[in-house]
Amino acid sequence: MLIIVTGVSGTGKTTLGTALSKRFHLPFFDADDFHPAENIAKMSQGQPLNDEDRQPWLLALAQKLEESEKTGGAVLACSALKESYRQMLQVSENLRWIHLIGERDLIWSRMLARKNHYMKAEMLDSQLSTWEDPSYGFQLSIDQSPEIMLSKALGYIQSHPLKMKMGVIGMGVMGKSLALNLAENGVPLAIYNRYVAGKEEGIAQKVLEENPDFANMLAFEEMDAFLSSLEKPRKILMMIPAGTAIDAQLDQLILTLEKGDLIIDGGNSFYKDSERRVHRLQELGIHFLPMGVSGGEQGARKGPSIMPGGNAEGYAMVTDFLSRISAKDKNGQPCVTYVGPGGSGHFIKMVHNSIEYGEMQVLAELTHLLRFGFGCAAAQVAEIYSDWNKGNLKSFLLEITADILLFKDQGGLVLDQILDQAGQKGTGGWSLTTALEFGVPYSPLAEAVNARGVSGKKTQRKEFSRTFQHEFRKIDDSIDAWLPKIKQAYALARIINHEVGFGLMKAVSDAKSWSLNFHEIARIWTNGCIIRSELMEHISEKYSDSFFEMKGIKESVISDRMPLAELVGLGLTHGFALPVMSAGMNYLLGRITAESSASVIQAQRDYFGAHTYQRKEDPSGKFFHTNWNSKEI
Ligand code: 6PG
Question: What would the CATH number be for the domain defined by 2-159?
Fold first, then answer.
């Protein structure tokens, strides 16, 4: 998307060009800044430039325009006095000309008012005599206010639309936020929302009306028009609900799309569906990127963590755009990386969400225990969390939970008015089934999914609490005495959640030969996403496949496991369900126990089913069977 504002010196090209660049969120270039030193010297002495002088200058400008076109576009203010000069700058079809035209006297008076400019007013006559009237573009008279000139220029470009760099389908919360983020970061955009009579009418248009500062967006609810507004190869980001809607949308898109076009699925699709779609589109020569996006509405608008996988060639087509809109890590690097082939982008987003479920549940368990066991006021719990949030335990989820504990409306604390039934959309449960499929122990994070399921049985819970006379027992010990241990327990419960999640990613990556880079995955999760935290920073630096032995983690496993065990014991005996913390404790003990109870299981299996077993002292790994009735092998 290129816009060139032309006209002799003094016509206000810079003023209009700057205003257009703001509205189109594109960089502005002043052609004067590209003159070689010799040209500037000549002009300062009042000598007009000739065609030969202008050659290197025009070539530099053409090159700048070409480069800019690749990254989204630019607005250039350039005298471009002659048709031959303009031809040199016509580097793309996707270019609009605005020619500023005015009376000599008006321009002259403006030039005299200008200070610190190397162009002498006397050169105006030379420029005017060189000027060749163009027969195309928009001739805009300068005898009107800058505001009116801007509005007329915008009107002209809207009625002669430029091709857009990218298209976004679906103007729901995430789609709209990502679209505005892209547009703000200089990616000219076509936005589309389907038309459903009475339900979804004029949705995309409404986004434009609510955001008048974005002249670099066009709105559609007609698919053909949307697709023809895009530059080729087309790059389309789908932000629509996961499931059959994605397949239906792909069915529609492939009717028009061509080889080399790119489709991105930025929703929370199940990774196996994404794998199937990668293959389907590959056969058609269409690039497909299944892409996780984390950060909720605010993240999508201001900088999410982005997890694209699938077709690497397709990723190269949008790397620059995704880098621009993503969050940045502490070194300023974009929180986006090419994750790996197939459905790996959606797979790691699924595991991200599973860790998210675990982290949320641990905070829910602790909050309940602190408030109704230790009898802390909500504000006191908020204070504890805010204090923790200043150190190693810092995380986005801890921060928002502290906020939630302080948030009141007319009815009092909002938290206490929220029905205690947790919803879910799928990703947490999919992680659990995937863990089962790949034989990966997953109990702590599985419990976070189960806890949401149990919470859903509210009516029965109320009945049962009466039937079984359940109530929370007040903890007599002082919170001050327990607080250091609670902090240690929380730290370790979080470590276990992360170990379990990274364990699943490692197992699936190995099984599928994805070669996932866990330093890099943790790095793109250090900012923008829901599970960003100090712990994630630590993992990104120190990641090791032997997670519990990682520096900083190992110390916590050693010193924090008794506090976790004690806290779980305390909570359970006082009537508090602590599914993730207790499952985490069990899981950890299971992982660090040399002599486990599994011998009993093997004996039982062999007893009733002759399933055989191996012996501890036999290095050959041979299988034995005992005739348990005769007590002989
Ligand atoms: C994120 C979130 C986001 C959303 C999920 C989980 O990373 O931005 O994970 O994707 O919260 O849809 O939602 P449920 O809790 O409803 O499963």
Answer: 3.40.50.300
**Domain spanning 166-342: which CATH class is it, in words?**
alpha beta
Q: Ligand 1 test: best mutation among 177, 178, 268, 349, most atoms within 8 Å of CB?
A: 268
Is 595-633 assigned to CATH 3.40.50.300? no
For ligand 1, pick from 301, 353, 359 the residue to mutate: most ligand atoms within 8 Å of CB. 353
From the CB of 530, is ligand 1 less than 6 Å away?
Answer: yes
Residue nearest to atom 14 of ligand 1 (CA): 424
Read off the tokens for 533.
């935290």
Distance CA 346, CA 293 (A): 9
Cβ within 8 Å of residue 88, ≥6 positions away? 58, 59, 61, 62
* b/e per residue 310-336 (b: at least 16 CB within 10 A): bbeebbebbeebbbbbbbebeeeebbb
- Please indicate whether residue 361, judged by its CB atom, sits closer than 6 Å to ligand 1: no
- List pLDDT tens digits, range 203-234: 999 999 999 999 999 999 999 999 999 999 99
Per-residue pLDDT band at 49 (split at 50, 70, 90): confident
- Distance in Å, CA 5 to ligand 1 centroid: 46
Based on the residue annotation, tell me whether 302 is a catalytic residue of this protein.
no
Does pTM top 0.85 for this prediction? yes
Fold designation for 349-590: N-(1-d-carboxylethyl)-l-norvaline Dehydrogenase; domain 2 (1.10.1040)
Is the CB of 344 within 6 Å of ligand 1? no
Nearest CA among 626, 591, 615, 564 for reference residue 362: 564
Q: Is 298 in the pocket of ligand 1 (CB under 6 A)?
A: no
For range 467-490, the mean pLDDT: 97
Active site residue 534: no
Please say if the pLDDT value at position 117 is more than 80.
no
The band of 120, judged by pLDDT with boundaries at 50, 70 and 90, is: low
